[in-house]
Amino acid sequence: MRIAIISEGSEDQAVIQNIFRAFGIDKSDIFLLKPSLQKDASSPDDSTIGTLQGVKNACIGYHGKRYYFERAIQFFDADFVVIHLDTAEIDRQDFDFQRPTRTNNENYCSELRSKVIYLINHWLENNYQNQIFYAIAIEEIEAWCLTIYEQNDSSKSANAKQKLNSILNKKDIKYDFDTISQDFRKIKKLQTFLEHNQSLKDFVESIQEKLAEL
Amino acid sequence: MLKEISIKNFKSIAEDTIQLGRVNVFIGENGCGKSNILEAVGFASADKHDNEYLANLGIRVAKPSLIISNFKGNRQKKYFSIDIKFNEKENRSFSFYTENKENINETWNIEQMVSSNFFETIYDLISKNPNKFQEIANSMGEKQAKETEDLITMVNELKKVDYKTITELRQNSNLHLQNFLIYSINTLVLRGFTQESRKEPVGIYGENLDVLIANFDKEEQKQLKKYNYLIDWLDNYFVDVNDLMKLKGYKLNRSKSTLYFSDKFMSKKNNIFSSENANEGILHVLFYLAIMISKRTPKFFAIDNIESCLNPHLCQHLMVEMCKLAKENDKQMLITTHNPAILDGLNLFDDEIRLFEVKRLENGHSKTRRIKLKPEVQNEMGEKYKLSELWTRGFLGAISQNF
Questions:
Q1: What's this model's pTM, rounded to 2 decimal places?
Q2: A43 at the B interface (CB within 8 A)?
Q3: Number of domains in chain A
């Protein structure tokens, strides 16, 4: 099985790759579609690369057509495409996006995930839904990695990035996403982390469901 | 033609099977194992398996413990093996081993097996000639030899009778495989400065291109001249058979090449220069065309890194023409490249022309994947992205994921 990833950056890709490896998919079959490869050294600086806008561009295409996304399926022979978004800044961008109420809302994570999926599908004019894995990290993918290092609910962490950084510093672990998320590669271990982050759980369960259908 | 190769325990290839076409192009990151595929075929084709002979085929020789796959956490096998399928009826299996894996000077031992499909062919023929079979079987009835030995004896006896088909089949596939070489051309060699390979009629680095061309018959010459248009400045080329032009100051006596070119933009009275002074593009183009056209060069060969020295547009056009020549002259090729423009000369909707991505799995094993285009994109090819662009934009794979 071949999987293409559209994500904000290669760090996110490393984490997602490790999760898929838990399902027996070889790293070499999981491929990051790099917006940077659409440019050369003479191209003007593109501030959208590595951002939410970059992911949106990959979905809607740079000229209003979805070439970029479609190429992944047509030529890379991708069976599935993973679209990754961190939600931390999703309502600060020009995305016309309304975040669900967080206070006293037990379903905040699932509701936010659903809304982001709706947004992505809107970008893709509701095409390709059966071939997409939605990797929606609430609020950032560091919260997923945090589940490896502490037993608390990491979705409630105010600043997952900072917290993860501090834990890794204390443990003298290098801040390298492939290394810090390597425990995701083992399915049994991965299962134990799911209870500490709803958005990670939703993503992993969506993989299980789709793979079970094959 | 070879239809399929399976390689086990050879260098970075733990296990891989490749369904071949006529023109087979391999792309992938540096060090992904492309050349190892060519070398594995080289081992299977070789008549001898000492270092000198193997190196002359273009195989990078090392001590056996580095040639047999040696992956972390796995016990190294005693042998590596290559299975080759020529057609539905004929397979060959080769196993290679040495007595001492640490000795670089060891000659490889080979166990060659003819597959069960081969015997099936025999059985087919036996069933068509039951009386003859019975006669031979009766004459062997008293023997106490093992069953397999009996069978081989029977096969040999049968072959002597009238089984021309099998003999021809085997001879053809032997010939096809036997002369396999890995060309890896070098400009200095093409210029005639050095001679490394003694292979005939041309060496693997481009030795004796002048001699090959000098011996072309009229038909071959005509075919080659047709391509003069590929090099804009080229008026003509010729071989100074007696190597006398050096005496007139056309070259220093450093080069052994007797190949000369005339430039159509220069004064007719003074427009000749030797391969020592020619640009490297013409030498490379001429070499590739000559080995495709020659009746004396192998029917089956490899070119490692075809792209060097050639302009992208020329690469594309040359590749289109090489695919045509491969069909016209019944050649089969394995080609490695890092040049995207080569891909633009491949029509992947033609099943004889195949493109493969070679990659390393996370355990380091090299694996090959055929890149196929889906029929529905046929109409949009050319209007949007060319294959070269798809590769450089990251849609075909075969690029590094690390940066």
A1: 0.85
A2: no
A3: 1
